[in-house]
Predict the 3D structure of the following.
Amino acid sequence: MSIKSGASAHVATSVADNSVDSDAYVDGSIDADHIASNAVTTAKINADAVTGAKIADDAIDSEHYTDGSIDTAHLAADAVDGTKLADNAVDSEHYTDGSIDSVHIASGTIAMDRTTLTAGTNISLSTNTLNVDDAFLINDGNDTTSGIITAAGFTLSEAASVSIGTPLLPSTDHTYSGLSAQMLAGGAIAAFDLVCIHTTTGEVVKTDASAVGTARAIGIAPAAISDTATGTILLQGFIRDDSWNWTIGGVIYTSETAGALTQTAPTTDGAFVQVVGMALSADIAYINPSLDIIEHA
């Protein structure tokens, strides 16, 4: 076949299968229009070839994540807030021990049925008041004794008792236990002075066995009380002073020295004898004044 010079000609070229490789392509010549639908599979994409720059904003949704593929390293700090947690999604196993403090507990949210006290547990209060609506300290278990504390006072059931622990004040000087009252001093009272009722209403003064008006002791002051001040009077119980040197088991009397205790009964004519207690040890006295007095003649 011959082609004449200057004549227009169309030549059909036949290309064999698989004869064109990547070297024959002009760079950038294969655009989206020349790629068949679904022709590019993951097997045709190099590892790490698709970067964030090649992904449109908001293009990847949750269905494209492998279960468990998002770990804490891929979460921004403070990225998970309350709006991202489903209701009732966080249970106790997700709390760090001790992480729930008083700041995170709403006022009035802890009811008694949510509270358990075990042996050795103490209740600490920020004030000196514990308010309860009804009876408190009721023991309805298998113990043989029970008691109730209400606003009206302390009530014991039948066969119940109040016990002062033993051994009694074994190691601490200037301590006491027992029944006490707050009373007004009608004069200066020193620590460990016996006191009696004063002729002035509501006041106590030092006991003095020398005269009938001051001879009946009602108790002992564990600490000094200034004149016109209010202080503690032990009416019945146990008290310790390491400066004492009692004869153990011996009776203790009021003294003709104001406020003093003695194991020698007054012998002066006109003085009054009153038993106020007994010596439990050389430095511990059991105080339980008898209101009976005997005049020495």
Residues 123 and 130 are 10 Å apart (CA to CA).
